[in-house]
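Hey,
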Amino acid sequence: MKKIIVACGSGVATSQTVASKIKKLLDERKVKAEVEAVDIKSIRTYIKQADVYVAITKPKETYPIPVVDGIAFLTGIGMERELQKLIDAVTKNKGETTWMYCKRLSITC
């Protein structure tokens, strides 16, 4: 099963709120994925095991997996667009590299 991690800049309360919302939205659309709120201080460890990173704050570095804007899930502004990026990421074509996937969707990885 694909894994989505959610992290904010100061702890896990906001991350947990966004993770719960994402899980609910994915379940409503019958998209299977594990969604986990994580501590930003441990992001490098979690990135290694994840397929997508939902960032509540602007990432200070680049990652080898797709990064989705988590603020959209708090404000609702642009949420459908970010949700679609998330769905596309967890349903990435078999054999498609992350680079090919990101280029196809025109997203930052």
